[in-house]
Specification:
It catalyses: D-glyceraldehyde 3-phosphate + NADP(+) + H2O = (2R)-3-phosphoglycerate + NADPH + 2 H(+). One of its GO terms (cellular component) is cytoplasm. InterPro entries: Ald_DH/histidinol_DH, Ald_DH_C, Ald_DH_CS_CYS, Ald_DH_N, Aldehyde_DH_dom, ALDH-related_metabolic_enz. This protein is α/β, with parallel strands linked by helices. It has 2 domains: 234 residues, Aldehyde Dehydrogenase, Chain A, domain 1 (3-Layer(aba) Sandwich); 175 residues, 3-Layer(aba) Sandwich (Aldehyde Dehydrogenase, Chain A, domain 2), CATH 3.40.309. Helices cover 39% and strands 19% of the residues. It is built from 14 helices and 22 strands. Strands 10-13-14-9-8-16-17 form a 7-stranded mixed β-sheet, sandwiched between helices. A hairpin with a 2-residue loop joins strand 11 and strand 12. It is globular, with a radius of gyration of 25 Å. The N and C termini lie far apart (97 Å). The N terminus is likely disordered.
């Protein structure tokens, strides 16, 4: 086994015509002066873009999708090298990223093509002396900050709604995954979007983050990530925020559940992309009466997962950074000291951590509450569905969850008690992308999903027409 299995550090981005588009290399940290110039260009470009007909905006988005799919191989290669995403998953991310863009183009035409007409005498005491016309208009400059784990897919989920709504877009790509995101943006440039409309700012968030998120030129922020989002929300002031932050997605398993189905969903939901997903299963809460059987089924499937480097297209690849691997190891060590049952031997080589199932996890263990963002999954045994729901609701996080049972009534009743979005008989997931997607508590604010994102990135323009007071004649 090769040592130090770290994802490759981003190289200088070489795909973009710097003479036409404002993009800086992934190794280049933008200065505050450069950020100011980018924001000014975005502001100028947005004023012209807002006058562009809806059908033209949609047409360019469709064109960008076609170009992105043509470039799927090099973009996917970037994902493999930068963030150790398995090759098959990297290609899937690029290809499926086109679908929400196409849907956004069509949905945007429908939503933004409609206005509303109100008359004043529908309100008590008023005559019909006013006509009110409302429509949706762009907010201005949208700052989009996607995470490292889906630097392409979660970037386009912000870019497309912003553009169809008539905004300009400034993208702050993640440090890990920057080249992938920049290559994707280049596909939008090739589609013919105006100069300055889509810009990128690179650099470490710790160095330029505050200046960027608090910039007076930003009119809206869409952020996906961790605790950084909480800090942003406290500093951003009065501008609209759309944020998806930390998670601890739970899976509750009742006595009558199809345990083969549960085990398959746990493997897919908990270990795909080495557990580095916001919708990954992060804790299993299983009824004591079926826990032994379920744990054995999951153990058998974990044993079949392939572990190795990104180039080998394995199921489990290195986590994104040494600091992430160290954090995961800290959770594992805490669980070991406090008596958790290790279903596999804990193994680590550099950033590569072998998949690990921890049984008999107790509430005093950190991993019962904290998010490992890696291939380590805790099992908590419960004696009632109420106990499981109570554990979930006691968490600081509230994004996704799932419950497995053959009793629909029991499923619905338990779901209604959860303070989060819950799936029945399937692992948590983000999509389809037109479904609402939002977190509660420390998991975020605002709602995502294509329609919700378009609405969030627009504001209502109201025009009131005053008419003479009507004169009535008695017949």
């Amino acid at each position: 086994m090769r040592k130090k299995c770290y994802p490759q550090k981003s190289g200088i981005f070489r795909f973009v015509n710097l003479g036409k588009f404002i993009i800086y290399g992934a190794e280049t940290a933008c200065t505050q002066e450069e950020v100011n110039k980018i924001m000014e260009s975005a502001k100028i470009a947005q004023k012209s873009w807002a006058k562009t007909p809806l059908w033209k905006r949609a047409e360019l988005l469709h064109r960008a999708v076609a170009i992105l799919k043509e470039h799927k191989a090099p973009v996917a290669e970037c994902l493999v090298k930068e963030i150790a995403k398995p090759a098959k998953d990297a290609v899937t991310e690029v290809v499926r990223s086109g679908d929400p863009v196409s849907y956004t183009a069509e949905e945007g035409v429908r939503i933004l093509g409609e206005g509303k007409f109100l008359v004043s005498d529908s309100f008590p005491g008023d005559e019909r002396t006013k006509y009110c016309l409302t429509s949706k208009i762009p907010r201005g400059v949208v700052l989009a900050i996607p995470p490292f784990n889906y630097p392409v897919n979660l970037a386009v989920s912000k870019i497309a709604p912003a553009l169809i709504a008539g905004n300009s877009l400034v993208l702050k790509p993640p440090t890990h995954g920057a080249v992938s995101a920049l290559h994707m943006v280049h596909c939008f440039h090739l589609a013919g979007f105006p100069k300055g409309l889509i810009s990128c700012v690179t650099g470490k968030g710790s160095e330029i983050g505050d200046f960027l998120t608090m910039h007076h030129g930003v009119n809206c922020i869409s952020f996906t990530g961790g605790d950084t989002g909480i800090a942003i929300s406290k500093k951003a002031g009065m501008i609209p925020l759309q944020m998806e932050l930390g998670v601890k997605d739970a899976c509750i398993v009742l006595e009558d559940a199809d345990l083969d189905l549960v085990a398959a969903n746990i493997i897919k939901g908990g270990f795909s992309y080495s557990g580095q997903r916001c919708t990954a299963v992060k804790v299993i809460l299983v009824m004591e009466s079926v826990a032994d059987v379920l744990v054995e089924k999951v153990k058998a499937k974990v044993a079949k997962l392939t572990v190795g480097l990104r180039e080998d297209d394995c199921d489990i690849t290195p986590v994104v950074s040494e600091s992430s691997a160290n954090f995961i190891e800290g959770l594992v060590k805490d669980a070991k000291v406090k008596g958790a049952t290790f279903c596999q031997e804990y193994k680590r080589d550099g950033n590569l951590i072998w998949p690990l199932l921890l049984d008999n996890v107790q509430p005093d263990m950190r991993i019962a509450w904290e998010e490992p963002f890696g291939p380590v999954l805790p099992v908590i045994r419960i004696n009632s569905v109420e106990e499981g729901v109570h554990h979930c609701n006691a968490s600081n996080f509230g994004l996704r969850g799932c419950v497995f049972t053959k009793d629909v009534n029991k499923a619905i009743l338990s779901v209604m008690q959860w303070r989060r979005t819950v799936r029945i008989n399937s692992a948590p997931a983000r999509g389809p992308d037109h479904f609402p997607f939002q977190g509660l508590k420390d998991s975020g604010i605002g709602s995502q999903g294509i329609t919700n994102s378009i609405n969030m990135m627009t504001k209502i323009k109201t025009i009131v027409i005053n008419l003479p007071t009507p004169s009535y004649t008695m017949g």
